[in-house]
Design a protein that fits this description.
Layout lengths: L9 H23 L22 E8 L2 H13 L2 E9 L5 H11 L7 E6 L10 H11 L5 E6 L13 H13 L2 E5 L6 H10 L4 E5 L7 H7 L3 E6 H4 L7 H4 L7 H30 L4 E4 L10 H17 L2 H16 L4
Parallel strand pairs: 1-2, 2-3, 3-4, 4-5, 5-6, 6-7, 7-8
Length: 339
Amino acid sequence: MSSKQFKVRPQTYAFILVLLLGILLVSKEYFASDEPSFNNEKNLVSTSNCPEGSWIDTHLHLETEVAFSELERRMDDNNVGCSLAFIYVDPEDPKDSFEILTEDYNGNLNRIIPYFFITPKTAQDANIDNIKKVRSNTGSFFKGHGEFAFYRDPFKQSSLLDENWKEVFKYSQENEYYIMFHLRGSEQVSQLEEILTLYPKAKLLLHGPELSSELPGLLSKYENLLFTLDTASLLIQKGVSMERSNLMYSPGGEVTFKSEFEKNREKILKSSYEEWFPVIKAAPQRVMWGTDASSDWHFSDDTYEVLVDFSDDFLKMLPEEYREGYMYGNAKRLFLESE
């Protein structure tokens, strides 16, 4: 019996090829669905998520489970539209940090302006190579890096003019990438001025209570300097012991905070206005509100409400032309995408 040779038509080959490609693409999508597509992530915080008349917090630390779980509820209850948050990233595994972020915040990131920070054990841990490594793995998701705290170890002996830090500020200038930092005090002012001169297009955000006297001059002279005036800086008492002075970071925690605040609210409000209004007046388009909340108790119902209420009282003391920029407008212009 004769046998016939089976022939496959060209159309059949084309059909099989298309089918295989389809299976491959679907499989890839299915198996990759649990992995974040990091290089395509983008910060999508928009003006529609932060309505006018709401606060934008430009300095907040998301470092604990309590902070992650309570933040959005506190924001909703206290008219805070969006928050610029510092989120820990392990430079050895930045994807893991992203997964924790999305899981703990239920994937709702459209009200968080994310900055990353690396917990340094030595002054070399926050080097430019680690910053580049995190950014290369996270695309444009993070708006910036911070905060760098020069008032504590391991940076207490560091200078802004050290080669590593100059590389960091140069990177900021070349990549339109924000750097948030907190200086030790007036001893670093000359270093800061040299950096602001060397890198006039760097995105530099300063915060902290140490330079209230120097800031009006610095902000007037250097248009590339931004400042977040946080509730923590407003809530510093003058002429009392160290334990009682910085209410948000007192060793006595929430107990000392409530006791001292209730007794001295009006006095603190008056002194904070006298100290800080000249700073806002010097650069009304470059000074922004923040909380500097970080400890678990900062996110409790009572305390978070007090932080925003006190900030609102401070806002009402400002001349009307300065209020919108400090509360919302400056942060909107710098950090939000228009719609």
